[in-house]
Amino acid sequence: MTTFHKRTPSPVLAAALTASIAVGTATAALAAPQAVSPAAPPATAEAAAKAPPVPLLWKVSDDDNSLYLLGSFHLLLPGDYPLSRDVDMAFADAEKLVFEMAPDELASPQLAIQMAQAAMRADGSTLDQQLGPELAAKLASWGQASAAQLAATGMTVEVLQRFEPWFVGMMVTITQMMGLGFDPALGLDAHMGGLAHQAQKPATGLETGAQQIAFLDGMDAGEQLQMLEQALDQAEAGADQTLALHAAWRAGDVEAILAGTVAELRRDFPELYRAINVERNNAWLPKLEARLREDGDDDTLVVVGAMHLLGEDGVVEKLRAKGYAVERVCSACAAP
User: Fold this and answer.
1) Dihedral of the CA atoms 262, 266, 271, 275 (nearest 10)?
2) At a CB cut-off of 8 Å and minimum separation 6, what does 209 contact?
3) Any signal peptide, and if so, which residues (predicted)?
């Protein structure tokens, strides 16, 4: 069995992957979503009592076109709606939307089949045989404690034995978040995709589902086991750190997210950080610049995981370095 340096249980790896790469892909494997996500959750007294989340929203412009860049949290709570008027205005101004993955593909039942096929163990072994006694015992303990939540996804610990560690790690994280009330159907991507459908605005993706699945399935054995172990440690540690990350997103607190999730992921898992953040951001840049260079004055709203926008490796600073005008759109930031 591969051994790892033990760390304080942290949501950094699982949360960064969950918030960055394929929550939609993973949750598609739980049950095929509706063809069109609802544009907004039902109004509740709790939602009405809360101020809207402070958006991680920037506007990038050249002479005639603009990109609005909106940092997403892929599973949200009912109380996270309604959104800020800044987001409403950006959506109203944009003629097109771009996501990590196109909403139509994300809603396809075929995506779940592709993911399950990629994640299925092909050599006849069980997951426990790969994990070794200590990590297998940790997974069994989690499965016993989370049996009800796991059953709600259509999975059991016995069924998870048929899959690769990367898939099981994501299932652990998603099951925990759903147990806390977070819902992928309320995620910002699903919400904005639903609005785009209702408004008949074109919505495309920067990547395909096949590309995202290939990345996850292409992680080496050590990275996959790290991902699963971190997810189990986070689940054992409880809700506090997950809720703290969500609170930082709600507050639009760039520094808190950078100092926590981004800095720890870059320090503890540099190769994984480069693959899931830096390389993907670099691959997206030409596609985003092409939007700015389009003829006419069509504006585009881009909705991607928040980590992709922040810090020196983020899309915002990379576009600023290329000479585009960049401004944060945040009415609440200027409030007393």
Assistant:
1) 20
2) 25, 101, 105, 106, 108, 111, 114, 115
3) 1-31
Neighbours of 47 (CB within 10 A): 17
d(C-alpha 289, C-alpha 60), whole Å: 10
Render 13-59 in DSSP notation, one character per residue.
HHHHHHHHT-HHHHHHTTSPPPSS--SSPPP-HHHHHSPPPPP-EEE
- Give Cα 262 distance to the centre of its chain: 13
Per-domain residue ranges of the chain: 12-334
Predicted structure pTM score? 0.86
Q: How far is CA 202 from CA 75, 94, 135, 138, 301, in A?
A: 23, 10, 45, 45, 11
Rounded to an integer, what distance in angstroms lies between the CA atom of residue 231 and that of residue 143?
13
Per residue in 174-210, pLDDT (tens digit) is: 898 988 999 988 999 999 999 999 999 999 999 998 9
Model confidence over 139-165: pLDDT tens digits?
A: 999 999 999 888 887 888 899 999 999
Instruction: Please tell me the total number of residues recorded for the chain in this structure.
Output: 336
Kind of pairing, strands 203-207 and 96-101? Answer: parallel
